[in-house]
Amino acid sequence: MSNKQGYKSRVYTDRPAYADFEPPAKFEAIKSIIGGKLLQHPNAICSYSGGSDSDIMLDLIERTRATFPQLKPVKYVFFNTGLEMRATKDHVKETAEKYGVEIETVRPKINIVQAARNYGIPFVSKIMSSGLSEWQKKGVPLTVADEYDAAKDKTAKRKELKERYPKCESVLNFLCCCNSAGEPRPNIQLVINSSKYMRDFIAEYPPDFRISAKCCDYCKKQTAHRVQKGYDMVITGERRDEGGMRSVPRKDNTALCFTETASGQFRLRPLYYVSDADKQWYKDYYGIKYSDAYEVYGMKRTGCCGCPISYRATDDLELIRPHEPNVVKAAWNIFGKSYEYRQKYNDYKAKRMEAEKKAR
């Protein structure tokens, strides 16, 4: 599709028919999918976070099981990172009681405090955090990007940079906004300027703390892999509307609703094509009660409490503060440097945009 028409990724162009259904037809289709996959892969485990997506997903699974009594129970697990709201932990218990299921609480071997202390803290996004973490480790100067931008033969320059900085492939691509062949790739998520002016900002205001997304790896991913091992199918509540990497096509399946991994394990994402409006309809129609984080505190999303990847992190902490001040204090102790640095970046970006507006 041409740029004039507007580019659409395969997540949109290859989506299944039910993705465009209106509720309740969409949810009936999803229940059929859940039922069919559970019949094929009855040894299933489901990650339950205590968030709104998880609430809808668990309700759908249990309604499906009520419709098809031959379906075996699904194993539910809640991953406690070490920094969780009381509202979330209470809601996990309440949900288990409501549906008559067990939701096992699993803790990581390295909790969020240890991971942050040992590896660093996130900034802006997981992709940005990973890229900046490698940049800090490898020590590649930001000026390589200026060299690349100024080069007439970018392929030759990229090759020369590779020879000058061996074992720094991903960092060079990240900083120069290109691929390994030297072809410019300024508009993809994997480069530093996927966040506007970030390269200039980092050059003018270098971070005085270690940046890393390892806390997610240790507190969620590695823990999940350990617990999910031995199950035939893993069920998660990712939705395309959340954006970020969850809206990017994967090699094994562009539809993303159901995939098979290299290890032979299957992954089901029943909510992948459920929109925000669909979720609201389901909540209202079935009377789903979210946790107090939503219903009382007024939060729009929960996720990992206080995670700096959320642009609303500090605003959400202020919503939490009247109810759980100790959690807010802990979040600031762990992630405070990132909160402050992001505010500095936001101010820098606003000034640059205003200056460009005036220049035009």
Detailed description of the structure:
The structure is a single chain. The protein is an alpha/beta fold. The protein has helices spanning 10-13, 25-40, 52-67, 86-99, 112-119, 126-138, 143-150, 154-164, 169-176, 198-204, 214-228, 276-286, 292-295, 313-320, 325-359, and strands spanning 44-47, 75-79, 103-106, 233-235, 258-260, 266-268. It has a six-stranded mixed β-sheet, sandwiched between helices. Mean pLDDT is 91; it is low at 1-5 and 244-254.
Give a quick set of tags describing it:
alpha/beta, 360 residues, 2 domains, globular, 6 strands, Rossmann fold, six-stranded mixed sheet, 49% helix
Question: What's this model, at a glance?
Answer:
The chain has helices at 10-13, 25-40, 52-67, 86-99, 112-119, 126-138, 143-150, 154-164, 169-176, 198-204, 214-228, 276-286, 292-295, 313-320, 325-359, and strands spanning 44-47, 75-79, 103-106, 233-235, 258-260, 266-268. By secondary structure, the protein is an alpha/beta fold.
**What's the quaternary structure here?**
single chain
* Rg (CA only): 22 Å
Number of helices: 15
Tell me the CATH topology of the largest domain. Answer: Rossmann fold
Compute the average pLDDT: 91
* Tally of individual domains: 2
Low-pLDDT runs of 5+ residues are 1-5, 244-254
What's the CATH superfamily of the largest domain, by name? HUPs
For the record, what CATH class of the largest domain applies?
Alpha Beta
Question: Whole-Å distance between the termini?
Answer: 30 Å
User: Strands across the major sheet, in which order?
Assistant: 3-2-1-4-6-5
Overall body shape: globular
